[in-house]
Amino acid sequence: MRKRGLRSRTVLAAVAAAVLGAAGCDASGGSGGARARGGEPSPVPVWDVSPNSVVAVGDSITRGFDACTVLSDCPEVSWATGDSAEVDSLAVRLLGRTRAAGHSWNYAETGARVADLPAQLAAAEAKRPQLVTVMIGANDACRSSTSAMTSVAAFRADFTAALAGLREALPKTQVYVSSVPDLKRLWSQGRTNALGKQVWKLGICPSMLADADAVDAAATRRREAVRERVEAYNEVLAQVCAKDRRCRFDGGAVYAYRFGTDALSPWDWFHPSVSGQARLAEIAYRIVTAEKQ
Predict the structure, then answer these.
(1) What are the percentages of helix, strand and coil residues in the chain, rounded to 5?
(2) Residues 194-247: tens digit of each pLDDT
(3) E-assigned strands of the chain?
């Protein structure tokens, strides 16, 4: 009887092991699947470094404003989706020139602020892209005065809502978020050009560029207030993006990039030139294709 009982228990144990194995359960009750060395499940990458479609949203920088001619958009040199060989945009780098022509779209608008993102993203959703690029915030700081700048609280609320809306519509779409450039550095570079300063008087970023040659205490405080607001916006972008596992912030790379005069528009000496757009494309490509962040 003891031998028969032992044999029965052995058979039952073997059957149970087979059933559990077929069900894909491990000893701890977790689901099975591919295993890495040491018995741990192999992690499934959340971020795809080679998305096959791109939509860009944002403001004048992403539209290539003033890069080709004065006071005009030039989307063909956009860092995000342009087809210019001089820029080698993010879309071209990711998709190749032929595929990028039919699988990348630019819904950025010159003058756009963070409150305009939901409408742009609604257009993006219709394309169901695998990657959305976002560069926004410069116009929230570039207002008629420092008191008119978008508050940090409002910026946070608007960006959070925009990203949440995209995530609800496209749960698996990846998002690359660029930091806002250092507007004070752009002023310090561009103020050396007489033509650029004349164009600034037409209304480009008055909070930073008004009275371009003034360096008195009041002007210095005004420009520093704009810079501090941009830094606060970048902190918001980083914090909100960090809560979304399919969102990558550039870590402040665009803000830290030291635009020289060759990287600025030859017409307004404030927006990126074709060369500047190429630098932005390089930064974005490096972030998007990094295996880990």
Answers:
(1) 50, 10, 45
(2) 988 999 999 899 999 999 999 999 999 999 999 999 999 999 999 999 999 999
(3) 54-58, 104-106, 131-135, 174-177, 247-249
